[in-house]
Amino acid sequence: MKVPVFPSVLFVVLFFSATACKNQSAEERFSESKMESEVVDTSNTTSVNATNLEREFVRTADAQFEVEDVRAATKAIEDATKKFGGFVTLSNLQTQVLQSDEVPVSADSLLLTKRYKIENVITLRVPNVQLDTVLRTIEKQVKFVDFQTLKCDDVSLQLLATDLERRRNAVAAKRISKAIDQKGTKLSGIVDAENEADLRRAQVDQALMNKLSLRENVAFSTVTLKVYQRERMQREVVLNEANIDSFQASFGDKLFEGFKSGWNLLGEIITFLFSTRQKT
């Protein structure tokens, strides 16, 4: 049995935890053009002091909660995300029919009763500096909290490692290319050296991509939400198309309907003749 939880509990823990590991703005974190243009000698990398590193965090938030109406809540969450500079990467809304019953109510009609629930899994990317604001805005949609978590991963050393790897490979590729240009060698040796230089340059590019990916994850936090509403019931009268032939009128019914139609027609004729005779 679930114990009721006030909606405000959903993001209280998230807010204070997020404040504890808040990062700089996305613009400041993602400005790498000057750094990427520099190639330094690997001899300088040995003097790096890890205690002087500026801490950088990748933050992710996960929550599952009940809302009054999934469709309305989804629109509110998407609007809030867009308002504060984020974007939606996934919105997977589904309706699951739990039970469906059909009861005949007439010769050609059925009463269709469905029990169903609606849920949606939403993934958001939110600027780090707006994460707390977005979470507080989403909190307004909450009726009942199942769980909520906030995770902060320190990626300072990963960023440093990718940067050092990129610089080492860049220096190695430059030295190989310089050696080929200055000394020259046999064709086979040149081919091998060029291949080695290409490999080093590819490693430089891969290290740069890894670093930019980390930077992007630092700049934009990922929020995964699962929202659902209570089970609901729908009833409607539908045509019984499957068994429509079995409800065709019998011969006796058709004969009775024909006799009734003929009798009504005969009565109309007699009434017409009687009224015409009185006028003459």
Automatic annotation (TrEMBL):
**Superkingdom classification of source:** Bacteria
Tell me which Pfam families the record gives: DUF4349
Which residue numbers delimit the DUF4349 domain?
55-273
What range does the record give for the signal peptide?
A: 1-22
Keyword annotations from UniProtKB, A to Z: Signal
What name does UniProt use for this protein?
DUF4349 domain-containing protein
